[in-house]
LysR family transcriptional regulator (Plastoroseomonas hellenica), 299 residues
Amino acid sequence: MLAPRRLPSLNGIRAFEAAARTGSFVAAAAELNVTPAAISRLVRLLELRLGIALFARHANRLVPTAAGLAYQAGLTRILDDAARLTGQVVAMAGAKVVTVGVGPTFAVRWLIPRLLDLQRQEPEIEVRVVTGGQTVPFSDGWSCGIRLGDGNWPGLEATPLFPADLLPVCAPAMAARIGDIPALARETLIRVAHAPDDWSRWLAAMGAAGIRAGGPVFDYYGQALQAALDGIGVAMGVRPYIDDDLAAGRLVAPFPRSVSKDMRWYLVHHAGREAEPGFAAFRRWLIAACKFRANGLDR
């Protein structure tokens, strides 16, 4: 038989955590919709229960003790987890809002063009696309994220979607004059700031490690690909970013060989999301869409 938990008053815990986090009884009272006197009383009772001072009280300010700082840090994490878990449980009641965190290029070049298919298959799902998924930490406010990496994100479940392959691309007119690697070296090789090794990886695989890319640098793949579309130079494309442009003939790959980036695209989310109807439907659709692409049937 498990021993009963020995916990102090949860009201006292909430009052202390809010006061320590906000720095005052007044701010904590406003957050918890009670009076400052009530916050002060609850914190005092908690200190008596624990047998230790959590605050050093001064005339015009509230300073947590060392014990108070350690207690607040742990409590804030626990209460944040409880709030997130509560949101997940409420979402299980049937809400079908899915917030997807993705990088801006993935959103524009792969996800958004396929949302119409999702709407046709799952008309009750409301998808909210939030960009920044590749450059900011995973947000607890997101249902899921689509990220490029090695699949190791502590605290998150990761489902592999498809590999990231490197392939140079350019406008059709430019591709017509690039017949070999020396001809490629005479063109402007467009770079992406956060992926400085893409060109060297592909060139090394082609036996041309001595060539150095020295063209303009852009923050995102989407910007680099737009520059290629405009005829500025050759961009290093990453699948699936380039698939639609290649299929439509807007971009051309002068060389047929692609090289693995040694990363994959993953769907990442907190454990337990699978029980939410909206997320479960989005996940099924996404995995099917990725398999569709892998079989060469994607548009």
The chain has a mean pLDDT of 88. The domain at 97-161+263-294 is CATH 3.40.190.10 (D-Maltodextrin-Binding Protein; domain 2).
